[in-house]
Amino acid sequence: MTEYLHLGENSLAYDVAGQGPLVVLAHGMGDTRRSYRFVAPALVEAGYRVASVDLRGCGESSLGWDGYSRTDIAADLVALVRHLGGGPAVIVGQSISGGAATIAAATAPHLITGLVELAPFTRAQSFPVGGFLRVRPYRRGTLYLGRTVLTGSLVSWKKYLDLAYPTKPADWDAELARTDATLSEPGRMKALQAMARSKPTDAGAQLTNVRCPVLVVEGSADPDWADPRAEGERIIGDLPAGLGEMTVLEGAGHYPHAEVPDQVVAVTLPFLARVLPRA
Fold first, then answer.
1. How far apart are CA 128 and CA 132, in angstroms?
2. Would you give the DSSP letter of residue 126?
């Protein structure tokens, strides 16, 4: 059942299932909390209380927010953790939410005891000309995303998604139709564009302030980077020594939690057991 957290004149849509320590699931730009539809039930079954949230401007959350940066999203995630009784909590954040989770952990260490970052945009990005010329999926993905950001083209966004999901979930057609309908709502594409224009420098600046363990999960076929493994290694290198670990899922793209959810659950549960023990 959808619930709402009201923050000023705006609201965040979320749902909660299960009993136990709190795990918050945060999706990427242009998506909704349904992206965790395969992962959330497995975490509930494993004994966790799981909150799946629509980011500001996405899904069933309201439009008209003042900003859509990682810092803004981090504040929302911390507010949700507080609303649900406070920590300890683990945030699972994908793409832009990986960066937001980093900021949340750095600014609310008493609430956040661990992070799982899926294909995260957590650092300032450079443009590798050699990689752009050499790695065709990266080149195509960059062009599709560029057109989406510049023109608000839903066609370009769906072409990007087709590339970013090298492994399609069984319900791909239905979910793509749902994405089409959601982003066709007035204002939804503008929220996506605003998120895409926000720079991850705010998250990168907070990496050294993180005090909890961090699991970075990259897909080897993620078209958002010419070398996804190298991006994950750079994130871990910017964290305090000993806090970061990385798993690369072979053949997965930018949405491993929907493409290969069993693999994501398999690497997430041992991490949760270490940083968020059940009673």
1. 6
2. P
**What pTM does this model have?**
0.95
65: exposed, middle or buried (Cβ count in 10 Å: 0-12, 13-18, 19+): buried
pLDDT tens, 2-14? 999 999 999 999 9
Cα 30 to its chain centre, rounded Å, is 11
Superfamily of domain 3-275: Alpha/Beta hydrolase fold, catalytic domain (3.40.50.1820)
Beta-sheet strand order (sheet of 49-53): 3-7, 10-17, 49-53, 22-26, 89-94, 112-118, 214-219, 244-249
> Could you give the angle at the alpha carbon of 207 between the alpha carbons of 206 and 209, nearest 5°?
65
Report the alpha-carbon distance of residue 79 to residue 163 in Å, rounded. Answer: 34
Any alpha helices (H) in the chain, and if so which ranges? 39-45, 70-83, 96-107, 129-134, 136-151, 154-164, 172-183, 188-197, 201-206, 228-238, 256-259, 261-275
List the domain boundaries for the chain: 3-275
Residue type for position 244: G
